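Shapes recur. Our protein:

. . .
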Amino acid sequence: MTSVDQPATDVAQAIERAKASDEDAFAFLYRLTLRGVYRYVSVRVPTADNAEEVTQEVYMAAVAGLGSLRASNEAGLYAWLYQIARNKAADFLRQRYRRPADPLPDGVVVADGRPSAQDLLEHEVEREQVRHALQQLTPEQREVLLCKYVMDYSNDQTARQVGKNVNAVNQLHHRALASLARLLRDNAYA
């Protein structure tokens, strides 16, 4: 069962049932959110094994904290899980960097893999340009792009989130990308 097959009311009911210790409801929510949570974690930790470990910790914390869940829809559930994931990934990285490392053999030279100040500045300028361009889109276009690229929602999930049909979401998506590309191009020459 995936969220594409489930209307928002089923998700809301599953949340309420999971809060009442219904294991089947939590299993449904787990299957619904696992891919997104794993992807979210995997970009924050070094290896796939680490991502699996941290994702497991996220869901263990979610089971323990279900009583504090105030979400009543899929977006709220993801926001709650992403907050747990952000904290668990940070805990993992802090713990990893506190462990003593084995010394390197004599003669091994470690290259500085950090980006240069110039690279960081260019990246920040690009991020600011994208943020500025996003603010110039219509609220609906912006929401569709955030659902599709930040939340990794399918067209069906995005349609439910923005209250439109899938065809309207597709049109908004294509117009938003075209507008964003135009705005970024125009700003590059400004």
Remarks:
- The chain has two domains: 1-101, 113-190.
- The chain is about 75% helix and 0% strand.
- The chain has a mean pLDDT of 84.
- Residues 74-98 form the longest helix (25 residues).
